[in-house]
Design the sequence.
């Protein structure tokens, strides 16, 4: 029966039987192959499962996270009576909270340093959904009655206070009655400037902190009765108060910002996991090639007895797929358990809630990535094996040298690579980023591959060193079949990613440190009432050690329209959405701010009178699709005010100076309810005096130390940096696995070399030095190449994306290079030690 | 011309072709040359070889090391392609055939026995023998393999792996594998070169016995004059040329 007579399934069935017999040889030589797949697929699946569990929690716990079915958010004003009436008509359970920043200090201790807190006032119905976690356990209403307060443990530590102590909040004294352990409607993923302090609405009113224009966020939560849907409730409220300027959220979009952040984080970590998998692919290719080189005689024999090239390809492809799917399955199992394990370990301490469970979609995606990567890297050596000339069986020594693959194999590998890139792009929330990643990864792989081959060629051609052990080490780098290119690609790629991440993080930290040392204000003061400005300025001036005092009017409003039409958030670019999803800072000025950098248009004259003009952030304008001459409408305390864009500014939000997204021309907002925002430059002694004076004489004013902002930024950077470093470490594991594989694959050759050298009179020390030289030089050269690529990548990210000055900091560069050499020597030593213990006689007899 | 006449002529034509095939050599090489590349430049291995073997004939090929004996077998088996000349085996011209087509020819018509056995280490004896039969799509592959192993005295070692067999047993397994598909031509490259004297003699007895049983055309490379003497003809090769017959 010929192949065509047998049929496709018949041929595959026969090939599968042959593959099963070949697998009897065991998994020797496939440990690194499996490890690379487990690491890469496990990383992608783990990240995907974790993100999916967080997203699921946002959905299933959305009511609890939102605090109800519907939330109405207002800034700097409360509901009007007609608005309350419209809400009452919905016949829903109702709860009100107010959040703002405030200062507290131990009561009766005028010299004690006040602390900035994130203050939250709640009514008796709070929380509508869930429960406040208190220690000692108690109901919120009981604890908060009569000036009671609940605080995070961090505030007690900062003030050196304990439960039962009294604190001064504004003009009222409060008593700490419990420690806050869990706040059901708060997500802590973002930046906070102080610990949480919860009081009752009555206490907030008694404290006198809320004045006209104060920066207070009022949230009203509704738990709807059956029969009312959130859509109908929203429609009823919008119809009753179309220009309320409030923000409505329901449990379907409870935390759109967080959902976006999770998407972005998930995409970034998935791409890093994919990079680790692709780097591991080099190990897969090396393992498959080494295995097939050991099967040359078998393949030639099969061809001698009548097997065709495609049949041989199919046999070993099936084998590789069976083993590959074992590795993929192990990676998936480990990843599927990750949300359950993380949830068990972190419990309520997780910054984002988790819904532990099995999530099929990310597991399927990771498995697909695994299979495609397997095909990309395995098809090439399989294609070479299929072309083994059977005639070599007639030669006395069978040299395991695989010929070039045929066009079909090259085409299949290319197709698999395109499929992998397409899957990466199509599965990504932000496809452009994924396209850049795919293109960058492909180019980087090619660059590393050619640099690896260049290194091997250089080792072959360079003038040999005089020391024999060094000469042997260099020669081994360039010998036929040396793993030099694959180690440079995998380990070099991983080191480059790790170094790039470290350099970006180091530059960000440097920037924050520089900001701290720079001539920055010591404080931002918010919620200064207009009639307090003069005495406040006098107070500041009277403190010795102050140099500059700046103040600007401060309002908050929401951008609600462009060019007379209602703003459609869906059409706003993702990077600009933050500016339209919540209230933003608004001010007015006759002269440009000192730090203003106009990039388009012109500032109005100092004595300008005329139509309302606006100076706007250039990046946000681009995100909204507006420019000079277009009009922007903001809702300020329920009133809609439009202005024509007269200039665009490039704002550096990192400069920690007073920056406003929207600045109106004079004559538009002077009569609007407003407070003052002020900055003070002061030395340490003056800062202390001012801080205490503000707490004593201006209790409604919050003092935000710039140092607190920098510390919060540093902490956020640290958390993000840890996550990114962990992700980069996964790639490093893949690279190390490839290095281990290369050491293991070369063991036979090293054993033989060691035996022959011993026969020729070399001492063990000299043989060990030769092998250590090989791996030390390989690791050093790889690290140098990786350092070059990593520095270039970090420069691109820091200079072009983050738009900061890039400094190639020597610390991370040296640490990565030294670490790589150390690891290379350790691996080389481990491999050499075994080779030196090989007995000579059996090896010489076999030859 | 009537239909019955046309039918009669077709039968006669097929009969004539069959008689012609009976007389045709099993192996025919005409002016075959082969050069292999090396670091020192191209090396001529076979130079203008004219060589033919009749159906059922046994031919021994002798010559010094490097004369081209193994390469001659490789060319006959379609494992090396001649640069010039024509090669025909079992009535099939090999020149112009691709790799996979040559594999099919080997599957149908050629059995090979190597000096170093070349059994597949992950397959048992019976599986090794069954390989060419499975590739040929024989439904009775394993039954035929069992019979072949029993004919070489290894009926009790069917499930043993090559590593569990002695050298002689491995070569007998290889013999069974080569004969199981009933090939028209058997090529043997120093089949006793890796065996001790006694074992080698036993293997040669089996080889010639099977050859006689199946009337297989045999071409064997050997250094042993005694073995060569058992063949119908001895061909000597030196420096890539047929020295004498």
Sequence:
């Amino acid at each position: 029966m010929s192949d065509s007579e047998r049929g496709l399934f018949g041929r595959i069935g026969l090939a599968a039987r042959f593959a099963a017999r070949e697998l009897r040889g065991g998994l020797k030589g496939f440990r690194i192959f499996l490890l690379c797949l487990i690491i890469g697929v496990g990383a992608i699946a783990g990240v995907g499962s974790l993100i999916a569990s967080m997203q699921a929690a946002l959905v299933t716990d959305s009511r609890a996270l939102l605090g109800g079915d519907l939330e109405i958010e207002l800034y700097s004003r409360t509901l009007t009576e007609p608005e309350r009436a419209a809400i009452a008509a919905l016949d829903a359970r109702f709860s009100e909270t107010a959040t703002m920043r405030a200062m507290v200090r131990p009561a009766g201790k005028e010299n004690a340093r006040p602390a900035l807190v994130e203050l939250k006032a709640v009514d008796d119905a709070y929380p509508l959904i869930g429960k406040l976690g208190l220690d000692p356990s108690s109901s919120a209403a009981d604890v908060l009655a009569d000036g009671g307060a609940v605080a995070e443990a961090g505030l007690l530590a900062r003030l050196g206070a304990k439960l039962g102590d009294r604190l001064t909040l504004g003009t009222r004294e409060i008593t700490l009655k419990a420690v806050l352990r869990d706040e059901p409607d708060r997500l802590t993923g973002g930046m906070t400037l102080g610990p949480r302090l919860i009081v009752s609405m009555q206490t907030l009113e008694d404290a006198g902190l809320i004045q006209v224009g104060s920066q207070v966020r009022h949230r009203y939560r509704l738990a709807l009765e059956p029969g009312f849907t959130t859509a109908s409730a929203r429609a009823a409220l919008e119809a009753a108060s179309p220009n309320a300027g409030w923000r409505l959220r329901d449990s379907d979009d409870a935390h759109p910002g967080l959902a976006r952040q999770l998407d972005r984080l998930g995409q970034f970590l998935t791409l890093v996991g994919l990079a680790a998998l692709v780097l591991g692919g080099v190990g897969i290719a090396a393992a498959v090639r080494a295995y097939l080189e050991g099967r040359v005689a078998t393949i030639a024999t099969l061809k001698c007895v009548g097997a065709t090239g495609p049949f041989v390809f199919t046999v070993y492809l099936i084998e590789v797929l069976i083993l590959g799917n074992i590795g993929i399955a192990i990676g998936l199992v480990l990843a599927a358990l990750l949300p359950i394990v993380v949830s068990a370990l972190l419990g309520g301490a997780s910054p984002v809630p988790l819904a532990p469970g099995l999530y099929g979609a990310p597991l399927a995606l990771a498995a697909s990535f695994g299979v495609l990567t397997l095909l990309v890297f395995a098809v090439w050596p399989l294609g070479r094996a299929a072309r083994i000339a059977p005639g070599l069986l007639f030669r006395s020594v069978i040299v395991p040298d695989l010929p070039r693959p045929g066009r079909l194999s090259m085409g299949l590998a290319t197709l698999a690579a395109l499929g992998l890139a397409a899957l990466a792009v199509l599965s990504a929330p932000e496809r452009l980023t994924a396209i850049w990643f795919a293109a960058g990864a492909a180019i980087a792989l090619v660059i590393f591959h050619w640099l690896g081959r260049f290194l091997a060629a250089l080792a072959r051609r360079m003038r040999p060193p005089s020391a024999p052990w060094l000469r042997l080490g260099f020669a081994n780098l360039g010998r036929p079949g040396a793993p030099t290119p694959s180690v440079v690609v995998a380990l070099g790629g991983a080191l480059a990613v790790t170094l790039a991440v470290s350099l970006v993080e180091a530059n960000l930290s440097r920037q924050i440190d520089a900001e701290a040392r720079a001539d920055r204000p010591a404080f931002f003061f918010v919620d200064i009432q207009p009639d307090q400005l003069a005495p406040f300025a006098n107070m500041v001036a009277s403190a010795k050690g102050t140099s500059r005092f700046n103040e600007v009017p401060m309002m908050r409003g929401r951008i609600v329209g462009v060019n007379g039409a209602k703003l459609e958030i869906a059409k706003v670019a993702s990077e600009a959405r933050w500016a339209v999803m919540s209230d933003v800072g608004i001010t007015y000025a006759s002269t440009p701010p000192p730090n203003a950098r106009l990039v388009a248009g012109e500032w109005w004259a100092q004595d300008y009178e005329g139509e309302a003009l606006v100076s706007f952030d250039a990046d946000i304008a681009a995100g909204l699709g507006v420019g000079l001459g277009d009009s922007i409408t903001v809702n300020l305390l329920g009133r809609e005010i439009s202005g024509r864009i007269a200039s665009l500014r490039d704002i550096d939000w990192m400069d920690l100076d007073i920056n406003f997204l929207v600045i109106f021309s004079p004559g538009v907002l002077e009569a609007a309810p407003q407070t003052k925002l002020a900055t003070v430059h002061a030395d340490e002694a003056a800062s202390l005096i001012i801080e205490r004076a503000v707490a004593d004489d201006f209790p409604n004013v919050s003092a935000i130390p710039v140092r607190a902002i920098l510390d919060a930024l540093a902490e956020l950077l640290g958390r993000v940096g840890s996550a990114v470093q962990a992700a980069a470490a996964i790639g490093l594991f893949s690279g190390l696995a490839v290095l281990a594989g290369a050491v293991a694959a070369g063991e036979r050759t090293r054993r033989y070399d060691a035996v022959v050298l011993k026969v020729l009179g070399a001492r063990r020390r000299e043989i060990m030095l030769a092998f250590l030289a090989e791996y030390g030089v390989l690791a050093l050269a790889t690290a140098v190449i990786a350092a070059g690529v990593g520095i270039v990548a970090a420069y691109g990210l820091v200079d072009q994306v983050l738009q900061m000055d890039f400094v190639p900091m020597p610390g991370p560069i040296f640490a990565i290079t030294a670490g790589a050499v150390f690891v290379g020597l350790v691996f080389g030593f481990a491999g050499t030690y075994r080779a030196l213990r090989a007995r000579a006689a059996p090896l010489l007899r076999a030859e | 011309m009537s239909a019955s006449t046309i039918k009669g002529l077709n039968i006669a034509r097929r009969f004539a072709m069959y008689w012609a095939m009976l007389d045709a050599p099993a192996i025919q090489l005409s002016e075959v040359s082969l050069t292999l590349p090396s670091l020192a430049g191209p090396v001529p291995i076979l130079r203008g070889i004219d060589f033919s073997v009749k159906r059922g004939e046994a031919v021994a090929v002798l010559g010094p090391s490097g004369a081209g004996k193994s390469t001659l077998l490789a060319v006959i088996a379609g494992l090396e392609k001649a640069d010039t000349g024509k090669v025909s085996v079992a009535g099939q011209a090999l020149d112009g055939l691709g790799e996979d087509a040559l594999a099919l020819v080997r599957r149908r018509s050629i059995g090979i026995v190597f000096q170093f056995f070349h059994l597949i280490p992950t397959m048992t004896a019976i599986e090794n023998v069954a390989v060419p039969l499975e590739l040929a799509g024989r439904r009775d592959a394993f039954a035929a393999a069992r019979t072949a192993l029993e004919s070489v005295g290894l009926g009790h070692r069917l499930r043993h792996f090559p590593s569990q067999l002695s050298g002689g047993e491995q070569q007998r397994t290889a013999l069974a594998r080569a004969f199981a598909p009933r090939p028209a031509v058997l090529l043997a490259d120093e089949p006793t070169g890796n065996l001790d004297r006694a074992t080698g003699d036993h293997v040669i007895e089996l080889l010639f016995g099977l050859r006689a049983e199946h009337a297989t055309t045999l071409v064997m490379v050997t250094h042993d004059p005694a073995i060569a003497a058992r063949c119908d003809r001895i061909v000597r090769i030196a420096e890539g040329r047929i020295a004498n017959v």
